[in-house]
Amino acid sequence: MAGYSLTEGRIGSTLLRFAIPFLIANLLQSLYGAVDLFVVGQYADSAAVSAVAVGSHVMQTVTCLVTGLATGGTVLIGHRVGARDEEGTANAIGTLTVLFLIIAGILTPVMLLSSGPWITLMQTPAPAVHYAWQYLFACSWGMPFIIGYKVVSAIYRGLGGSRTPVYFIALACVVNVAADFLLV
Prior knowledge:
The protein is an all-alpha fold. Helices cover about 85% and strands about 0% of the residues. Helix 1 (about 10-45) runs parallel beside helix 7 and helix 6 packs antiparallel against helix 7.
């Protein structure tokens, strides 16, 4: 098992030990757009800043939808772990993994092809449209990685371990910041 039992011990301390890393991971992931915005703001014009703001809002919206689905998977896995149903746990993990592979296979091309409509829907200022399309198109290529992180995190959390996903996202944040400075 990847974590500790969530069915034994004091509820408050057990819940905090589980929830705080979960909150930190979500905070770090939500800062991606802010970091991109900060770096672009240092080196580019207002149109580029506007483009990153638009694109990061779209990506955050999609990421929140995926997070909701992943949380449902965490609950299913956790329920089976709590019931000490190893076969059910394995089935829940397998089903979640296949489901998220399908979601990644569908959502990535959908995001790549719908960058233009998203930009229109967000009423992006004309000078920022091209930059917003570039930013959103580039971020959309990362959907399989975002979805992969979400499914792995859901599995770890369902097994009772909420710390490992924080390490994954912290490493990704470091890479994001370094890539921002390198590529911008």
